[in-house]
Amino acid sequence: MASIFKPRFHIRGISSCISALVLCSSTPALSADLTLTLTQAQTIAVSRSRQLAAQDLSAYSSQEMAIAAGQLPDPILKFGVDNLPVSGIDRLSLTNDFMTMRRIGITQELTSTDKRHARAQLYERTADKVRAEKSVTIAAIQRDTAIAWLNRFYAEKMVAMIKEQLHQNRLELQAAQSAYRTGRTSQSDLLSARSALVVMEDKASEIQQKSVSAKANLARWIGNSADVEPEDLPDMETVRLNPSMLDAELEHHPQIAVLNQQINLAEADAKLAQANKSTDWSIGLAYQQRGAAYSNMISLELSLPIQWDQKNRQNPELYAKQAAVEQATAERDELLRQHVAETRAMLSEWQNDRHRVQRFKLELLPLATARIEAVLAAYRGGKASLLDLLAARREEIDVNLQLLQLQNETARLWAQLHFLTPTTSTAVLTKELP
After folding, report:
1. Which of 52-56, 178-182, 213-217, 429-433 has the lowest mean pLDDT?
2. For residues 297-311, b (16+ Cβ closer than 10 Å) or e, as one string?
3. If you count DSSP H runs as helices and E runs as strands, how many of each does the chain have, helices first?
4. Distance between CA 41 and CA 300 in Å, rounded?
């Protein structure tokens, strides 16, 4: 089997070469810049996918089966002995009785061109469906890799921010200890500073674990490349969707394309059922050799199946296949409505989260910063306690963490919307095999 398969197209070699080319093209950029862009991460994830290779092989298999299905059945070679005596003086003699004949013949079933074409079309539509499913896989890889990359990016931002706050808390504890020793602050303030540091250290442990989990999840898609620091965010102000033409645009969604191919596949199956209502002739030719004293003979025969009960045999099969076409069409229409509704909801949520991010940046964060500055000035002037300063500091930290979390959620929604269909950045990996 291997000796037949490999010389024809070298599929495994092609897949390996494509993956190697992508990895080689992306590796120098990673080693030179020591950062990983979102596009690089997606390219690596697509190149590492074994599911795509499996789908390539499945499409190839169906395409090859289409070639075989379009051919006539193999002829049947027959050998036999006719009219061999089993009693009397000529018992088991091949030559004494004039009726005994040694026969060699060949029979060929003459399957109609329409029926062979319908069988081939069934496999070709199966290959088309697998190719459509491959687009679904690529879009899912790009989307999930983008979400994992964004989670890693914002997790690193949270880790950096919490480290800075930890440093600030340690400085405040040192200041509180000095002030307590000189009698300028109370033991309650000193304990509050220590408590604030412990709480912040616990928060740092929680965020550090989230960062580790985010990195591990990204490694599931891109392997060791997840160790490289993520680069700055891409432009996430727009998505590749027009809300006013959402119904028309989502008709090209990969999952809808799969159901369109499922409809084509069901139609091809129905055409084959229709073709099966016509019978196939068979023709046979035989050469019959008798004893030396007798003439040799040839025989020619034609055979035709009699479809005497189409009402209960061929017709129910055809009706079932036609119903499958209607079923696939209904499922496609229902899924399209579902996708439109879900995408509208995501678009609305994404737009709302973007407004909330702006509110955090323009209102809540400046207010928290201004409060810190006011309480710090009052603390230095003896009009506020260290407890007031720590409370203001916690509020600022909470606002910053909430902002990063909200930005992360907004980015995830962007990734889900932007990568509903595969991008062209990995076109080299989606080339069909010969």
Report:
1. 429-433
2. eeeeeeeeeeeeeee
3. 11, 6
4. 69
Determine the distance from the C-alpha atom of residue 149 to the mean position of all C-alpha atoms in its chain, rounded to a whole number.
17
Which amino acid is residue 82, in one-letter code?
D
State the greatest distance between any 2 C-alpha atoms of the chain, in Å, as a whole number.
138
Q: Provide φ and ψ at 234, rounded to 5°.
A: -75, 175
Over residues 338-380, the pLDDT tens digits come to 999 999 999 999 999 999 999 999 999 999 889 888 988 887 8
Please report which helix (H) or strand (E) contains residue 348, including its range.
Answer: helix 314-359
Give 382-406 pLDDT, tens digit per residue.
787 777 878 888 888 889 999 999 9
Cβ-contact 96, 291 below 8 angstroms: yes
Q: Which of 317, 342, 154 is nearest to 246 (CA)?
A: 342
188-195: long-range contacts, CB 8 A cutoff, minimum separation 24: 188/387, 189/385, 189/386, 189/387, 192/386, 192/387, 192/390, 193/169, 193/386, 193/390
Task: Please report, for the chain, the start and end positions of each structural domain, with discontinuous segments joined by +.
Answer: 2-73+112-279+311-430
Q: Which structure tokens are listed for 25?
A: 């093209």
Residue 425 to residue 240: CA distance in whole angstroms: 14
In sequence order, what are the residues at sequence separation of 6 or more whose Cβ sits closer than 8 angstroms to the Cβ of residue 84? 92, 94, 100
Give the Cα separation of 203 and 159 in Å (integer): 10
Provide the mean pLDDT of the chain: 86
Dist. CA 258–CA 67, nearest whole Å:
23
User: Which pTM does this prediction carry?
Assistant: 0.80
Residue carrying the six token digits 């050799």: 289
Fold of 2-73+112-279+311-430: Outer membrane efflux proteins (OEP) (1.20.1600)
* Alpha-carbon dihedral sign for residues 372, 402, 420, 130: positive
